[in-house]
Amino acid sequence: MSRTPPNLLTATQEALEAVRSTSPLVQCITNSVVVGFTANALLAVGAAPAMVDVPDEASMFAGVASGLLINLGTCREEQRAAALEAAPAAIAAGTPWVLDPVAVGVLPVRTPLAHHLRDLGPSIVRGNASEILALAELGAGGRGVDSTSSVNDAITAAQLVARVTGGAVAVSGATDLVTDGVSVVRLSNGHPVLTKMTGGGCALGALMAAFAAVTPDSLTAAVTATSVYTVAADLAAERSALPGSFAVALLDALSEVSVDDLAARAVFA
Amino acid sequence: MSRTPPNLLTATQEALEAVRSTSPLVQCITNSVVVGFTANALLAVGAAPAMVDVPDEASMFAGVASGLLINLGTCREEQRAAALEAAPAAIAAGTPWVLDPVAVGVLPVRTPLAHHLRDLGPSIVRGNASEILALAELGAGGRGVDSTSSVNDAITAAQLVARVTGGAVAVSGATDLVTDGVSVVRLSNGHPVLTKMTGGGCALGALMAAFAAVTPDSLTAAVTATSVYTVAADLAAERSALPGSFAVALLDALSEVSVDDLAARAVFA
Amino acid sequence: MSRTPPNLLTATQEALEAVRSTSPLVQCITNSVVVGFTANALLAVGAAPAMVDVPDEASMFAGVASGLLINLGTCREEQRAAALEAAPAAIAAGTPWVLDPVAVGVLPVRTPLAHHLRDLGPSIVRGNASEILALAELGAGGRGVDSTSSVNDAITAAQLVARVTGGAVAVSGATDLVTDGVSVVRLSNGHPVLTKMTGGGCALGALMAAFAAVTPDSLTAAVTATSVYTVAADLAAERSALPGSFAVALLDALSEVSVDDLAARAVFA
């Protein structure tokens, strides 16, 4: 492991301040289930969301956005076309971009699309263990949007995908894992109630695009987003661990979470 | 009436425990207004939502899902195609499925589609009185998504639809009514603030698909979903009867509502 | 300025009571990010939302709705077709309609569509300063959905657009401005946290359609919606100025805001 916790803590603190001071413009091509919550999570943390997912607009916008998220959760035809034009435009403009291959595995529309986007080299890939195994073509995917594999099962797959993309890969679970193909960082914040609300993982993917906009190193960006998000989840769960009020408290906590909270609570391993 | 309240109470309690212990995978093809709230309601009660509504994926998924909801609220072209392939796939696989014919009546796209799906024999149909009258071709529909008829006006229509489909039909209103064409069960829980938030009825349709996954009898599944949902609404309304905080409290209550709450509060008539 | 604050206050109070007593049916063709929040805001204030945005249904519904909102935030192909048939149908039926040209400026799909709809003569146009400047073809638009211009920069543009449409134009910002091309009304309620949640402006556009349904004068309708919405925001911000709980409190406040609250708090200038 090439990074030590003190370095990571400082990096995450600097990135949080940078998001709040520069308010990066984050374009999201994401699923209809979580699109509102995702925009609210970006606003709460200090970024500026723009859900520009219409063909012909998506590529133009990817050239001016600070970061781009492509999430395949409900990938209707226009969104697929938007994703296929936005990713190359982001690459051409040097805009960092995140791929969230929701429920990839055997579903016949999203699976080849996810593989195609993987091969274009996203800055960060985020998924659960089953999704990362499927994206590495080492597994058949999970149960709908749920993982049927553990994060540790996906280490080799995550490293393999990171080497193909040249970016970072984040595996979400009870313990979160981020790798750039060589270094592996584990994070142990967060709360089980995150799995009882929809969009917990999808919003994290959007935050990764926000932090990638202010952090040149993809591994650090993915680690920062994960740390900020799961420390905020810890704060929120102290207010309520029931799913409806937790989701509200999570948005509040994303707007309040401070560099001191990261110092006091972030657990890297 | 062929069922007595004690039988129904026991059946609903067993079904609630079964949803929580088995977490049925519920595929939803539903409208954009309520899709996030619906997923959260399913998660809160203990089920696993999967909003797979893209053509070519919808039929494959219907074969592996535990239950399927088709809601016509904002039925764009791809969702209509997804519905038309998912319903037969559900039938072929023995997956129970729910039809929610939102605002059926005179609107020219959804009305023939709703009639076509009705004739395929959904396990459960859920709607308000105007929608059930329109689906029985005994009325012209309501005022947008609102009913202009009372639940009692729709008894004959509900029984007629149930005999055509061979399943259960649930009519939502101040008093809820469920019939299989012979038996009629009335439920009197719930609170008027349910009509002051969007998606109250739509989320109930999704819960019916979850309970149908653990309850072979469609009448019992529809009654259980209605009872669990409206008892949770009673609990939530005790925390707040204002619409924003009620919706949050309803998700909390769906995660907390217990078999003892059903025993203490459920009102069948 | 042809109107004085006392007249405006009385007019807004009467319109609020009229919305609550008649519950106007408001058709919304709006973006996927805010569609649920918008429906909930309409319900909370006392109106009846109907998100009918499918081609062939949209025009029929515009003939029976009490008001129509066309918001271009995520204007996919079917929504564009729905907008293009609904606007003329609304005009033919005398249904007041609101245009919210989200992020208009250089984006190549929505910009010509917004100009086309502008030329059809919407009853009310609502946007931020950058959007109104772009709609007047006096500016290149903002930064995604955010304004890069101040409300005062947009006065001339707003008056120009109002003269073209023959209706009212509302410019949202720290101070809100409404004009019919001659009169200019400024409103100074609201709270900065409104910019930290998604859909704050979009829901206001929907409320304008609701108030236009009960107020023949478009300027008064736009002023009333702005006043009711921003006074409710003041009430909500007193409960919480954190973004997640503020959004919940705003829905609660929209259901509670009274004519006395308007008298005590509304600030016109």
Automatic annotation (TrEMBL), chains A, B, C:
Pathway: Cofactor biosynthesis; thiamine diphosphate biosynthesis; 4-methyl-5-(2-phosphoethyl)-thiazole from 5-(2-hydroxyethyl)-4-methylthiazole: step 1/1
Top-level lineage group: Bacteria
Cofactor(s) listed: Mg(2+)
Enzyme class: transferase
Catalytically driven reaction(s): 5-(2-hydroxyethyl)-4-methylthiazole + ATP = 4-methyl-5-(2-phosphooxyethyl)-thiazole + ADP + H(+)
Binding site for ATP: R126, S172
GO MF terms, alphabetically ordered: kinase activity
Keywords: ATP-binding, Kinase, Magnesium, Metal-binding, Nucleotide-binding, Thiamine biosynthesis, Transferase
HAMAP family for this protein: Thz_kinase
Family: Belongs to the Thz kinase family.
Name of the protein in its database record: Hydroxyethylthiazole kinase
Organism: Rhodoglobus aureus
